[in-house]
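Dear Dr. K.,

Following up on our conversation at the group meeting, I've run the structure prediction for Transcriptional regulator from Paenibacillus cisolokensis. I'm pasting the input sequence below exactly as I used it, so you can double-check it against your construct before we proceed with anything downstream. Let me know if the numbering doesn't match what you have in your notebook.
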Amino acid sequence: MKCEVGTKIPTTPELAAIYSVGFGTVDRAMTALKETGAIKLQSKGQLGTLLLEKNTAALWDIIDHGPLVGSFPIPNTIEFEGLATGLIQMFMEKRVNCSLTFKNGASLRVKQLLDGQCDFVVMSHLSAVRSCREHPHLQPVAILNSNSYYIDLIILHRKDAVPDMKSWRIGLDPTSYDHIALSDDIFSDNEKINIHYGHIPYLIADGVIDAAVWHSTQLVPAALIDVLAVRRVEKLETGSEKSMAAAIVVNGERKEIVALFHELCDVGRIGGIQQEVISRKRSPAF
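The predicted structure tokens came back this morning:
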């Protein structure tokens, strides 16, 4: 899977040495790959053998890698439900078995990727830029449309909060690159208190914090509706706007994963399915 179309593949002796097998085993494997249509080769004599075509989905199935595993934010919003459904359905149509694990906090999902616990991570474009800057061997393989990650953002706060927003204590989840950037963007001079994102409504109601940036389509507990109020986020800084688009990041050193996404990932199809879920024309399924 690591060889690119149009390039020379390793020779039989080289493949035998790489995989510690005999020449006959290599020849039988190459014959099977050709007969199943997974690859198409062209011999150039002393110049070697060129890879003319490859069926990435068939190769993925043949190597028995197991399911493609992605680390995804907890799907507690309609955008995330649609995105997860789109990913699973798109790969299913490509005949690639894909499964998702769920964890909030882009930094925690990146750690899973670095530790080899997953094959790809889903995060915002903003988080992808930061992750790839901090870990140069990471690589974005897909950027989806604007608002594919967040449709809209709001400020969740107490109804009885003082009018002067500059005095508010702001809740910030330090595991979320987006929450850090957005909180600093909107509340640059406010006191920040580290919290877990999922605890925000309760911490506001309990008076631990006064407000926090919140995902507009994420529900808040019904028991707190008499205590909480919302304000729209009017405008974001240019860099923070990247938080609204979804991105997929992989370990660039895993060439087979990079090839799989470059050749099979259809962001248009993912986005189309996501919109069907958002408009209630399709039920979430992931």
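Two things stood out to me. The chain has three domains: 12-54, 68-149+245-278, 153-242. DSSP finds ten helices and twelve strands in the chain.

Best regards,
J.T.
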